[in-house]
Write a structure and sequence with these properties.
- With about 300 residues, this protein is of the alpha/beta class.
- It has a single domain, classed as NAD(P)-binding Rossmann-like Domain (Rossmann fold, 3-Layer(aba) Sandwich), CATH 3.40.50.
- It has eleven helices and nine strands.
- Strands 3-2-1-4-6-7-9 form a seven-stranded parallel sheet, sandwiched between helices. Strands 5-8 form a two-stranded parallel sheet.
- α6 packs parallel to α7.
- The termini are far apart.
- Bound molecules: NADP nicotinamide-adenine-dinucleotide phosphate (NAP).
- Belongs to the short-chain dehydrogenases/reductases (SDR) family.
- Putative oxidoreductase.
């Protein structure tokens, strides 16, 4: 081993790593495709990250179709955006809205038709809407596990499958999904959420490979904590609303910064993007490279919570 690493191997390895890192930085700095006039559909646009994505894509000159369940809040956002210019030479457009519940598969199919009627095509579908969950598996009703899966997994895949044929026909389009760090690692007391995001990651990884032949990229974005109402809107084991702004969420990333990360990832047609501070990113590597230690840490974190609640 000494002989292998001796005689100039270390500088060679360091130089190769340096070139690789420089390449990654340059790739990240490239501006990527323009979104002027592109038709961008955003689900969960009524609040949080979706709302900020709407602002970012609107300023980039996209023609938006904003989706959510609350028509009033979507209209408020349309009003706000139509009064805002991009602040650049780019032309901006007044967004359209489509109101539907992602957890209701039948209404998703009808909504996809409505979405296509807005501009006749979809260039970028941003599957952003989602709900979170807080609870102990032993006390969680199976229906709650199913409900979270309906919104976070079956909702986005139904909408994607309903819109895909039109993208395939045009040999053009881009499918984006907002997953989570919890789509890559599972932390205790988040079973329904982590399971739905793991399923999401797997489905869209399969989709990426299957539709590459049509020139349609798939981007999976995995953010860490973002300062939104996600924890407030989360469901608990009996289906009631959690209603608490968790500390981790309150000190999370600014949703405007995450939205800029989403915009960049779309422009650069990136495949898999983690938008998080170093600790969660490190945890993903730990889960892969040293699972025994990762499981110990998760069990210890569960014990700490159990002691606090005892
Ligand atoms: N905040 C975080 O820490 C964090 C971290 C990683 C990933 N994420 C992901 O980021 C995405 C956006 O969440 P957020 O943080 O912005 O939370 P949020 O403020 O609670 O927004 C969630 C959005 O999803 C929509 N939505 C929820 N259930 C829906 C349903 N059944 N049908 C249609 N729309 C529905 C909500 O719209 P209405 O209630 O108005 O219908 C709302 O616009 C989610 O996929 C979440 O998992 C968030």
């Amino acid at each position: 081993m000494e002989r292998v690493l001796g005689a100039g191997m270390v500088p060679l390895i360091l130089a190769t790593m340096g070139v690789f890192m420089l390449y990654r930085i340059l790739v990240r700095l490239r501006p990527g495709a323009t979104l002027q006039d592109s038709v961008v559909v955003i689900t969960g646009a009524s609040s949080g990250l979706g709302r900020e994505c709407a602002r970012a894509f609107h300023a980039a000159g996209a023609r938006l179709v904003l989706c959510g369940r609350d028509a009033g809040r979507l209209q408020q956002l349309v009003q706000e955006l139509s009064e805002t210019s991009s602040g650049t030479q780019l032309q901006t457009y007044t967004p359209s809205t489509v109101v539907f519940d992602l957890a209701d598969t039948a209404s998703v199919v009808t909504a996809a038709e409505e979405i296509l009627k807005c501009y006749g095509q979809v260039d970028v579908l941003v599957n952003n809407a989602g709900i979170s969950y807080r609870g102990n598996i032993l006390d969680t009703h199976l229906l709650v596990q199913r409900d979270v899966m309906e919104t976070n997994y079956f909702g986005p895949i139904s909408l994607t499958q309903a819109l895909l044929p039109s993208m395939v026909r045009r040999r053009s389009g881009h499918v984006v999904v907002i997953s989570s760090i919890q789509g890559k690692i599972a932390i205790p007391y988040r079973s329904a959420y982590a399971a739905s995001k793991h399923a999401t990651q797997a489905y869209f990884d399969c989709l990426r490979a299957e539709i590459e032949q049509y020139g349609i990229p798939v981007t999976v974005i995995s953010p860490g904590y973002i300062r939104t109402n996600l924890s407030v809107n989360a469901v608990t084991g009996d289906g009631s609303k959690y209603g608490v702004l968790d500390k981790t969420t309150a000190v999370g990333w600014d949703p405007r910064d995450v939205a800029q990360g989403v915009l960049r990832a779309v422009r650069q047609k990136r495949k898999d993007v983690v938008l998080a501070s170093p600790l969660p990113s490190l945890a993903i590597y730990l889960r892969t490279l040293w699972p025994a230690l990762f499981f110990k840490l998760m069990a210890s974190s569960a014990r700490t919570k159990q002691k606090k609640e005892a």
